[in-house]
Amino acid sequence: MTADLTGKIIVLTGVTGGIGQVTARTYLEHGAVVIGSDINEELGEKLAAELTGDGHDFTFVAGDVTRAETAQALADLVRERHGRLDVLHNNAGVLVAKGVQDTTEEEWDLVMNVSVRGTFLMIRALSPLMGEGGSIINMGSSLGLVGGANEAAYCAAKGAIVNFTKAVACDLAPAIRVNAICPGGIDTAMPRNVVAALPAEDRDAVWKGLEAEHLLGRVGQPEEIAAVALFLAGDDSTFVNGTAIAVDGGWTAR
Fold first, then answer.
1. φ, ψ dihedrals at 65, nearest 5°
2. Distance CA 126, CA 250 (A)
3. 154 is catalytic
4. Which of 35, 66, 167, 199 could bridge 113 with an S-S bond, Cβ 3.0-4.6 Å?
């Protein structure tokens, strides 16, 4: 099986993050047209220059996924330029690494709004542009399948994404498939920044501890998440629907 996304129109949020950038390039290299969105306009424009410079059909749209007007602007652009949408990949997310007693209301709202509200708004606005065979990919987490210390808001948000994915799959069947990817620890800026905020003498041990929590003895790479996204975006996954796929090196099996 080889994924061929030639001619498929894809909207990808959180495009400037570690997983987002690699996934965008993966989609493009397999023939897709990608409209990427992110709140970080500077990085988004830089990414767009790089990808279009390589000959890919990529458009960047700056926007905040927690605002309905961002989703509507993306829907309007897709409708005017392409008339349809084939894949919606809700990748935007934010991590606050704190336990329940230390999490502020503002931090709770931020994490829940970006992951859950943002995913809801995007699906509500863009799914009407999707026809038979459409695919929605939501970004969950292994921490949305099991709990974890010092991740209260993140666990709550990703747990909501997992069950929301199942609900939307029921709503949009049989025309549109809806699935979630649940990564384990992935070597991106998100976990690296959490570790970097620790006292210097603790950083190496904490990172090695994170690696050891995975049955494969390492964290994952963004390319390993993009490979699963590619599968879900393409026609090899036409009987996969309403599920959360753990891509976590065995983290949730321990």
1. -65, -15
2. 33
3. yes
4. 66
